[in-house]
Amino acid sequence: MKLIDRLFRQPTDNIFIQMFRYIFVGGTAFVVDFFFLYFFSDICHIHYLISGILSFIISVMVNYWMSTQWVFNQDGSNNRFMEFNMFLLISTIGLVFTEILLWFFTDIMGMYYLISKIIAAVIVLFWNFLARRVMFYGRDFI
Known about the structure:
- There is one protein chain.
- This protein is mainly alpha-helical.
- It is built from five helices and no strands.
- α3 packs antiparallel against α4.
- It is elongated and about 45 Å long.
C-alpha cells in the first residue's frame, strides 16, 4: 500500500516516480492520440499526416492537464498562460519529430501508418519527458 501511495498519490520530485507517472500519463495520451488518428484517417478519410496533427491537438490537452496535476506537481502555478505555451512548444517539437518519423516509416519504409505511429511515439517519448523535466519544470536531469 505504501508503494501504491508513492507511485500514484503522493506529490514527488523523485525522477523515477515521475518517469513512471509520465509513462502512465503518456500512455493515456497515446491511447487518445492513437484512437483519434485512426478515427480521422479511417472513418473520416483524412490523410494520415493531417490526422496526426488533429489527434495531437486533442492528446496534448489530456497530457498537459495530467502532467501538471499529477506528474510534475504544478497545481499552484502562478502563470498558466506561460506554462501552457512552454508545454505546447515542447509538444510541438515532439509533433514535428513524430510527423517526420510517421512519414518516414509509412511512406519510405512501407509500414502501416498505425505501426509507424507506435514506433514514433516510443522514440519521441524520451524527448518529451526530458524536455519537460529539464526545460519546462526547471528540474535537473537526474
